[in-house]
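G., before I forget:
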Amino acid sequence: MKGGTDMESKMTLQDLTVSFASRAGIRNNTADDFVRNFFELIALKVVEDKVVKVKSLGTFKLIEMSDRESVDVNTGERILIPGHSKISFTPDAALRDQVNKPFADFQTVILNEDTRIEDMEAFPVSSVDLPTDEDGDVEVPHIVIEDTPNVDGHGENPALPQDVVSSVDEGANAGTVEKTVGGNADAVKENEGANDDVAKEEEGTKDDRLEADIQEKDQEAEAVAAVQEASDVPAPQSLMMEAVPQVKIIHKGVSPWFTFAYVLLTLLLMAVSYYAGYRHLLNFDAPREVRTVRTQAAPKAEISVKSVTPAPVDSLTLARRRAMQASKQYPQVPGGKYLIVGTRRVHVMRVGDSLLKLALKEYGHKDFAQYIIVYNKFPNPDVISVGCEVKMPELIENVTE
Amino acid sequence: MMNNKEFIAELSGKTGLSQKETAQYASQLVADIAMQLEEENVLSIAGFGTFEVKKKLERVVVNPSTKQRMLVPPKLVVSFKPTASLKDKANGK
């Protein structure tokens, strides 16, 4: 595929004249005269008549620009750009299609809802226009209208960006860019000979896998992006074509070791964090459970759970021992997980109160009602009169040693 | 507003060729220009301007009314940049 500035050459009026003369079969000076007049007339008439249409070439237009404000790029000052005229050229449809022939098979595709645009930033061609209204590009509505009917068609393009087209059409969750980045990752992978991954990705089914791959290859993809930016080629297709061999060069020595080290590091981190979390669970198991009991320490209960909760391990056991000692003077729930060690507060029953509600409000669960019942020695807990004073017990966890 | 017919008529008057010949040559010239552009050559016409093929990258556009996002494929477009002298003429200098 053609790409890059090296392929282009500059044609002047003279070159065009010579080419035209030989093709039209006329003498050079006749051709020269004709070509000069041709362009002179367009130039003259576009100024005079505002619009000049030339068959199968296009339309030249004189566009009046009104005054507008702008900001000086260097000084940041506001400046007024005075109104002026601009000459625009819109190529004829035939010319436009002829020039765009290499890309003619590409079609506008509707992106899925879950296609993630953020990933576009990780896309090697970093200068891709994100959805832009500020772009102010006149083409935008034009494209939307014109290309929409074609949208469903599958492209048959041999070039790499076709991946983009097909992946979106398949409606796979994998974003367009993931796919494309994956394409680069594929290229790298092929170096390592992991062909089965490539096959899977081509099926477009292993999205998770793909994402994982991308994460692993993330840095490599950045490297790709860097390489491509450095190569400073404007077109995506040429970027793709050139990027692949360059990536190969870069990663030939580094990649396996890098991947290995990366995986090793990840595993190590996982192990460490797992160990840390597990240890934490083991050592601080007890206080955590206590914390589920609401610890609004009553002024009366010096041996409150509150003092226990944040305390270090040895003072905790000390307080606990004292609390256990204290618990002996109170009635206890047989086989209960918690010990009653004092009175947290006294509640006067009102209309609508119930022990279950109190337990739920005070301790976070209605099952704590039994502690209230036992502590207050209610003979018939189903019948408690309004105005009755209910002592809310202070609880600690019962640890049998 | 000047359409192609008027343009050919005027051009034939300037070159002294018949209108039929003029139309024939003009279409030949245009075909030649198109061919040059197809080969991605830069066509710079003194006193008139420069025709150039530019690559537009693929991009995502959003239809403002439906919020539908679309991926617009890369494309090659013809751009025209008038020379300074033509710009000056356009601004009546």
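The mean pLDDT of chain B is 86. The radius of gyration of chain B is 19 Å.

More on Monday.
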